[in-house]
Specification:
Length: 206
Amino acid sequence: MKVESLTVGPLQTNCYLLIKDKSTLIIDPGDEGERISQFIRHYSLTPSLILATHGHLDHVNGVRKIQETFPLPFYLHSQDIPLLGVGKDTWGDLFLDNIDVPSPTKFIDDLDSIEWEGETIEIIHTPGHSPGSVTLRVGNFLFTGDTLFQGSVGRWDLPGGDEATLQQSLKKLSALPDELLVFPGHGQTSSLQKEKQTNPFLLSLS
Ligand SMILES: [Zn+2]
Ligand SMILES: [Zn+2]
């Protein structure tokens, strides 16, 4: 099992492809759906599912373009459905005429995990950046979306965000094993150990 990442869109979102043999899970296709589809075709990958860590446009704007090529299901937490409709107000000119709001085919609220290619994808509800933010844990990989970044955390001042709730979610992540690799929604890959030791937002948790 390995992870490939493509940085997409005006906010430089990390779209991750989790690959086992040729089977592929697409996480946070925030934009440039055609480029993501081309990558999948180029390496003869077989995608089976699109998952979003949350509903902000910069994590889901490429979903529909991918679905034009690969008719895949798209899973999202239902509490982020209201965010899907606020693209233009929140993101201003960033996405211009490019806004392409997807429709979830399934809500992941009630799922503790998803079985995929013999692996268990654990769904950890980590609200605060948005009400429906989730962190996905697969083996030693942790996909944290905009909840936890290398050296920082996501904003809590956008609609539906809440600082105290985010802190509770960060405590939940802090309790996970040090050896987990952190794949955030933006910026560099890290490890949970490094974040626990150096991230001021984790160090300040009481
Ligand atoms: Zn976000
Ligand atoms: Zn983001």
